Amino acid sequence: MSIRVTVNGTEHIIDVTGPQSLLFVLREHLGLYGSKNACRQGECGSCTVLLDGDPVCACLVMAADADGANVLTIEGLGTEGLHPVQQAMLDEGAVQCGFCTPGIVVAAAHLLEHDPSPSADTIREALAGNLCRCTGYGAIVRALRRLAEAP
Amino acid sequence: MPVWPRETAAHAVGFTVMETFRPGTLDETLDLLTDHPDATVLAGGTDLMVEINYGGLRPTSVVALRRVDELKTWDGTFIGAGVTHHRLALGPIPALAQAARTVGSPQIRYTGTLGGNLGTASPAGDTLPFLAAVDATIEVRSAGGTRILPWDEFLIGPKRNALAPGEIVVGVHLPEHLPQRQAFAKIGARNAMVIAVASACLVRDEDGSTRIALGSVGPTPIRARPAEEMISAEPHPNDKAVAEFGRLVAQEVSPITDHRSTEAYRRHASGVLARRLLERCLV
């Protein structure tokens, strides 16, 4: 059975034979390795993508159920120069090993789109589903606060 | 860029290709389930996909509910099964919003649904103590008809509910009148991304009548009825009455020891939660 899914503005038709996740399709069919495969149970958020505009864990979306969906991955952000979230994280040194970074950038971009000036608490709650095991949360929150305070 | 063959190796050696149905209406869904009573029903997928990713679950056919708009309605006292935790958390019912806000993470709340919580019927389902505390009824439907079950006839054991083959949860009905004083609290190792060690929802009416349901401390949500009776008779409970209420609640729960906590801690926590929620509903 094939699904039709738009990823970062490009429509793809993909053959799906089993219950594999959208994450599997993104990485193994489309070669989009930015969304990370870590916990496969929605705990870590490193596979966060926007599904029809909502931040979700791609590992918990059945690919067969993504038919007709519009998906934005980290590769679809900052296509013309860095996305403001990416620039802010770079400026603040908010990246250590980098594994959680794509998911955090996607979740943060979604937050700022809906709340351009979030408090530190709001940022922490919005990123509660994104684990950084380097424990670099301080710099990440500072980077996003910088954007929140930008004129 | 890697290009995958149209047919995977598994397919080539004769594994069944999973059939997926993506109905757009409730009627279409029920007809599909009549024809495919063994199909796996997919709501948000936050539980089902974990079973697939870790438990080796390989459904042969799936009926996906995400496109059924009728399930997403929220009309006064009726909340559709497809309403996400994200929507519940923004909704007008304080204790239900509090409970939904403690579910997983934003990503999980955008995906997971109220109906999924009922379908999974985990003792730790975060919205279930609310449904139990307000005596919600669960509407289930198959092509053969509709049944409306009290919550305690729907939730019949750990991860067990009363759904018959071909039936799905359509939504929940809340009573017309909900007490304004209501609160939910949950104990876990951190604020986000935890399965409850213990949780509780308490509602208290103007006349003092009080109901409390606890989660993760029994096979299904537990109503502590002797404690309810005792505190409902106290229009202005003093410290002693509040303490007695906590003691009775702790007596009423039947927790187990597992990898998340111990029987003793859960029993103690139940009493503490009960007292705290009652105090919040007295001011």
With strands numbered from the N-terminus, the spatial order across the biggest sheet of chain A is: 2-1-5-3-4
CATH top-level class of the largest domain in chain A: Alpha Beta
Helix amount of chain B, in percent? 25-40%
**What is the CATH architecture descriptor of the largest domain in chain A?**
Roll
Q: What proportion strand of chain A?
A: 15-25%
State the order of secondary-structure elements of chain B, H for helix, E for strand: HEHEHEEEHHHHHEEHEEEEEEEHHH
Largest binding interface between chains: A-B, 35 and 41 residues
The chain-level mean pLDDT of chain B equals 94
| Cα separation of the termini of chain A | 49 Å
Order of helices and strands of chain A: EEHEEEHHHH
Low-confidence stretches of chain A: none
Radius of gyration of chain B, in Å, reads 20 Å
Helix-residue proportion of chain A: 25-40%
CATH class of the largest domain in chain B: Alpha Beta
Query: How many domain modules of chain B?
Result: 3
Which class do the helix and strand fractions of chain B yield? alpha+beta
- By secondary-structure content and strand pairing, the structural class of chain A works out as alpha+beta
Average of pLDDT of chain A: 96
What does this structure look like?
- The complex is a heterodimer of chains A (151) and B (283).
- Chain A is an alpha+beta fold and 151 residues long.
- Chain A folds into two domains: 2-76, Beta-grasp domain (Ubiquitin-like (UB roll)); 84-149, Orthogonal Bundle (DNA polymerase, domain 1), CATH 1.10.150.120.
- Chain A is built from five helices and five strands; from the N terminus they run ββαβββαααα.
- In chain A, strands 2-1-5-3-4 form a five-stranded mixed beta sheet, sandwiched between helices.
- In chain A, a hairpin with a 2-residue loop joins strand 1 (2-7) and strand 2 (10-15).
- In chain A, helix 2 crosses helix 5 (137-149).
- The radius of gyration of chain A is 15 Å and the shape is globular.
- Chain B has 283 residues and is an alpha+beta fold.
- Chain B has three domains: 9-64, Uridine Diphospho-n-acetylenolpyruvylglucosamine Reductase, domain 2 (2-Layer Sandwich), CATH 3.30.43.10; 70-173, Uridine Diphospho-n-acetylenolpyruvylglucosamine Reductase, domain 3 (2-Layer Sandwich); 181-282, CO dehydrogenase flavoprotein, C-terminal domain (Enolase-like, domain 1).
- Chain B has a five-stranded antiparallel beta sheet with strand order 4-5-10-6-7.
- In chain B, 48% of the residues are buried.
- Residues 1-13 of chain B have low confidence and may be disordered.
- Chain A binds chain B through residues 1, 15-19, 21, 28-31, 40-43, 45, 48, 54-57, 59-62, 64-65, 67, 107, 125-126, 128-131, and chain B through 1-2, 4, 6-8, 10-11, 15, 17-20, 22, 42, 44-46, 48-50, 52-54, 57-59, 62, 64, 66, 86, 104-108, 110-111, 191-193.
